Amino acid sequence: MTPFESLWRAFAQLPEVTAIALGGSRAGGVHDATSDYDLYIYCDALPDEAERRAIITERCGYAEIGNAFWELEDDCTLNDGVDIDILYRSLNDFARSISAVVDEGRAATGYTTCMWHNLLRCRVLFDRDGRLEALRRRYAVDYPNELRANIIGKNMRLLAANLPSYDHQIAKAAARGDLVSVNHRTAAYLESYFDVLFALNRITHPCATGGHRAAGQATYSAAG
After folding, report:
1. Which sign does the torsion angle of CA 25, 26, 27, 30 carry?
2. Predicted confidence band of residue 209 (pLDDT cuts 50, 70, 90)
3. Cα separations in angstroms, 195 against 55, 94, 111
4. How far apart are CA 152 and CA 66, in angstroms?
5. Which phi and psi (to 5°) does residue 61 adopt?
6. CA distance linking residue 113 with residue 151, whole number of Å
7. Taking the domains of the chain in order of start, what are their residue ranges?
8. Is 135 within 8 Å of 95 (Cβ atoms)?
9. Angstrom distance (rounded) from CA 4 to CA 164
10. Contacts of 8 (CB under 8 A, 6+ apart)
11. Per the database record, which ranges form the Polymerase nucleotidyl transferase domain (predicted)?
12. Which of 2, 19, 197, 220 could in theory staple to 42 by disulfide, Cβ–Cβ 3.0 to 4.6 A?
């Protein structure tokens, strides 16, 4: 048994854990030897830190417990040298976030459909009561027209032709020689640009994983 399999199976024994899924490039089979694992632990209550540490320490040579830069996660290096990000989520909160996007059509400024993509593309490793698979079936639907229109409308107004739009901000920063702001606003521009591109082609946003491949498909579809 690999350190990765041993680790997720140990987490599956905890009573708080309702489901476990593998995301990212390893879920899609497009990884290489250096690709890390993105492991999602869905739980009704957060497992105790001491329990998490005990499971992780036995199977990892290095561990950072309780990082909370984006989501709560433990970031580690398995005993076979492969990095792993272990993210802890409430399944109910996760479901609500997807409903807000798919059912209610709420658009963000970039990355709008990432969580929906994560749900559809993950590999379910453990599902105690079948709730994660039920959620995936619930949202295996066509791309909603309202959501598509909202993403395009919101993000296009940030790309150009409005006072706060990124093209104006980039031009003003360049004129004053502020290269840091140029870089910052260009990154924000691309976030909105790709949100529009994926929405136009009715493709869920792959976040950082496989984004260049999905963007290539979307560009081809738009051109075709």
Report:
1. positive
2. low
3. 38, 20, 6
4. 36
5. -85, -20
6. 9
7. 3-138, 145-223
8. yes
9. 46
10. 20, 22, 39, 125, 126
11. 7-106
12. 19
Q: The domain 3-138: what is its CATH number?
A: 3.30.460.10
Does the pTM surpass 0.85? The reply is: yes
Would the pLDDT of 213 be above 50? no
Block residue for tokens 């929906």? 116
Q: DSSP alpha helices (H): ranges in 48-90?
A: 49-59
Q: What is the pLDDT of residues 168-199, one digit of tens each?
A: 999 999 999 999 999 999 999 999 999 999 99
Q: How many residues does the chain have?
A: 224
For 51-107, how does the pLDDT look when each residue is reduced to its tens digit (9 = 90+)? 999 999 999 999 999 999 989 999 999 999 999 999 999 999 999 999 999 999 999
DSSP 103: T
Phi, psi (degrees; rounded to nearest 5) at 212: -65, -35
Tokens of 205: 């946003």
List b or e across 64-100, with b for residues whose CB sees 16 or more CB atoms inside 10 angstroms: eeeeeeeeebbbbbbbeebebbbbbbebeebbebbee
Tokens (6 digits) for 13: 């024994």
For residue 48, what is the DSSP state? P
Q: How far is CA 67 from CA 12, 59, 101, 138, 167, in A?
A: 21, 18, 26, 31, 35
Read off the tokens for 95. 């479901």
